[in-house]
Amino acid sequence: MLTAVTSYITKCFCKNYREFLETNFVFKLFERGRRGARICLVPRGLADLVDSVMRSVEKLSAGLIVGWLRGSGEFVPSPHLFNLARNAGFDYGCAVVAKPHGVKAFLYGNNLLVASVERFLHPVEKGMYVAIVDSEDMMAIGVGRLVVSAREFEELLAKGDMTAAVVINMFDLGVVLRNDKLI
What we know:
The strands form two sheets. The protein has a six-stranded mixed β-sheet. Strands 1-2-3-4 form a four-stranded antiparallel β-sheet. The protein is built from seven helices and ten strands. The protein is an alpha+beta fold. The protein has helices spanning 3-12, 15-24, 47-56, 79-87, 100-107, 150-159, 175-179; strands at 25-31, 36-43, 64-70, 75-77, 95-98, 112-113, 117-121, 129-134, 140-146, 165-172.
């Protein structure tokens, strides 16, 4: 069930990061019916407590959300998976580094355009989910689907097509503010 998650982590992060996660955390799957499931990391010391509470509570989620498993079995990573790696000192790929104006646009729910891309952190492939990383602090601000290959990006850049979408926004950290009715 978590094969898609571990495959993504193996592809996009260094081997030591996967070992770090498996040593310090337990992956927990919180079902959401036909929509898929939320994947969270729970510290090993709290895993048994979370399990016991889950038996007595109908709907519960706990831990750090590291992604979502869609009904199709496809894994969509969370920015938290990338930020945990960065904060723990691990390298990662599967990301697009955004220029400051692209960061702002992405956090407002827009797609990342050619003009806003600083560089790719490989491996990246057309169609995959990638993190959008702020060039100023290298923190992930969201995730999206890469809709062009690295070669296609270079062609768009050479043609001067600066408004073509490179990454379709799937989730960004600005969604919390946009959806908060109290602000």
